[in-house]
Amino acid sequence: MSTLLDFEKPIAELEGKAKELRHLQEGSDLDLADEIARLESRAAKLLAQTYAKLTPWQKAQVARHPDRPRFKDYVAELVSEFTPLAGDRCFAEDPAIQGGLARFRGRSILVLGQEKGADTEQRVRHNFGMARPEGYRKAVRLMTLAERFGLPVVTFVDTPGAHPGIDAEERGQAEAIARSLARCLGLAVPIVAVVVGEGGSGGAIALAAGDRILMLEHSIYSVISPEGCAAILWRAADKAPEAAEALKFTAQDLAGLGLVDEVIPEPLGGAHRGRQTTIRAVGDAIERHLAELLGRDGRSLVEARRAKFLAMGRLAEG
Fold first, then answer.
1. How far apart are CA 111 and CA 101, in angstroms?
2. What's residue 28's pLDDT?
3. pLDDT in tens, 242-293
4. From the centroid of its chain, how far is CA 235?
5. In this predicted structure, what is the pLDDT of residue 6?
6. Average pLDDT of the segment spanning 142-171
7. CA distance 234 to 243
8. Which of 33, 55, 60, 144 has CA atoms 20 to 30 A from the CA of 268?
9. Rg of the chain, C-alpha, whole Å
10. Cα separation of 250 and 217, whole Å?
């Protein structure tokens, strides 16, 4: 791995020692097999123990890991004949939100998602997955196109939030997000949304108001980042772990609250340690949920989707 999280360093030290011994053993008469096996066993045990009890703040770090699969990785592995569609037909093209027509396991779909980028140059170009109004207006345009041709929509959510700059506010950021959210809620075709990393604020739900909302095991989904919450409540950045605990933004928390429909397991050590396994698991979950939705007519989909979101947060008497 190119990036190590703080709590992964003890694991990496053991793995590094095992790798050194394996390299030392090659081309020599040394028999270090037992020691290598012992180190690997300790590393595997520590890895399992660490990921079995991640704190919400640690989960936030895993969700943001730069080596997690991104939108382009899911598109490359899960769909074929991908035809990207660009521009909002009003102002500009926004690279933070990508989308287009594709075939997913034999079925035509529209696929949408935030793209953060793989390296510094790409992250700057994609604005770290933070879309401006033109990105959300492009999403509305593409979802409307999908509805016109009866294509199910699959979205991949991975953003810290919508772009907070003055330029975005000048071009109607809140209105663009609201229109994208309204378009999701009124779309007469199935929508399956997958939170694959960060699901931050309105910038995330603008693409995630679907019939099914899925989350990877170590992803997060929240109205605000822990850093933003800490800045508002305590005016102190070091309170972010405390804010993460209070926000209840992990996949497990949200599944318990009935806000997401399925938590997709990640390989031991997170998606960044098993990218292909993660992508296949996401694809299988999408296929399963689409199969349940495709036989339903547009009106019943819209009614059920709206009822689903209106029921969120409603208190039951008794």
1. 6
2. 72
3. 999 999 999 999 999 999 999 999 999 999 989 999 999 999 999 999 999 9
4. 28
5. 85
6. 96
7. 9
8. 33
9. 21
10. 8
Q: How far apart are CA 73 and CA 272, in angstroms?
A: 12
Question: 138 and 96 in contact (C-beta within 8 Å)?
Answer: no
CB-based contact 318:194 (threshold 8 Å): no
Query: Is the pLDDT at 17 greater than 90, yes or no?
Result: no
In this structure, which long-range contacts are made by residues 36-40, counting pairs with CB atoms below 8 Å and at least 24 apart in sequence? 39/14, 39/15, 40/14, 40/15
Instruction: Report phi then psi at 84, rounded to 5.
Output: -70, 145
pTM: 0.91
Whether the pLDDT of residue 161 is over 70: the answer is yes
Structure tokens at 7: 């709590």
Give residues with Cβ within 8 angstroms of 291, minimum separation 6: none
Q: Helix (H, G, I), strand (E, B), or coil: what is residue 193? A: strand
DSSP structural state of residue 315: P
Condensed to tens digits (0 to 9), the pLDDT of residues 94-152 reads: 999 999 999 999 999 999 999 999 899 999 999 999 999 999 999 999 999 999 999 99
**How many residues are listed for the chain in this entry?**
318
Pairing of strands 220-222, 191-200: parallel
Asked whether residue 1 carries a pLDDT value surpassing 80, the answer given is no
Rounded distance, CA 177 to CA 161, Å? 11
- Sign of the dihedral defined by the CA atoms of residues 22, 23, 26, 28, in that order: negative
**Residue whose C-alpha is closest to residue 5's, from 59, 46, 53:** 59
Closest CA to 220 of 97, 56, 52: 56
Contacting residues for 31 by C-beta, under 8 A, at least 6 apart: 25
Q: What is the dihedral of CA 18, 21, 27, 32, to 10 degrees?
A: -100
Position 5 scores a pLDDT of 87
E-state strands within 49-171: 79-84, 97-104, 107-114, 153-159
